[in-house]
Amino acid sequence: MQDRKRRTHSRILVLNPVRSVSLNRRSREFFRAKASPGFEVECESLAEGPASVESPSDEAVAAAAVARRVTQVVDLAFDGIVINCFLDPGLEAARDLTRIPVVGAGESAVRIALTVGQRFSIIDVGPMKYVSRSPTRQVRAMGAADRFASIRGIGVPVLKLSKRPDLTISMIVREGKLAAVQDGADVIVLGCTGLAGLAERIKLNLPIVDPALSALRMAEMLIVLGLRRRGVSA
What we know:
Elements: H1 2-6, E1 10-16, H2 21-34, E2 39-45, H3 56-73, E3 80-83, H4 91-97, E4 102-104, H5 105-116, E5 120-124, E6 131-132, H6 137-141, E7 148-153, H7 165-183, E8 187-190, E9 208-209, H8 211-225
Parallel strand pairs: 1-2, 1-3, 3-4, 5-7, 5-8, 8-9
Antiparallel strand pairs: 6-7
């Protein structure tokens, strides 16, 4: 606590729950460029995590890696933690292990979407032509099912998102337009943190919510407000 009082900046740890070195480099550049004045950001990829989080088994492995890492960093004077994955692996476990704010990218993006629109669609990296109007397990757990319009896939694997960004953007635009016309969405949530930084390049007449940036801003807000969990010793 004394270390926090002496510091002039608040420190946020961004956990990439995958073992990708290139993703960690891109994440570090993105979060440090976007961090508000008064905040420092450290990014870590987790060597025990999966290559990407695209299935329930990937999510389980990533969640375990996140929980283990949080137990190791609780004494390192961080003021907040971001889980940089839309599926929020290990989010509840991490919150159970520390009093400092822990935010997930998916949860943060959906919460923000609810403030700027009435019905949101998630544009995911799932199979092309995939579309579902049934709320996902994640959306149901947040209590946001009645505001959910659809989830649509663009058919680009996570590990290939950075290869052809212009094509990725055009596919998001296509699915975003369909989400608005066919599903009644008035706000779009990007369904993968591998899309970080693309929202400002997507030309749609709808708000586009970037999950990575949403998580960063949510963590900053909670730190500024001084909100910490009760009942957790660390």
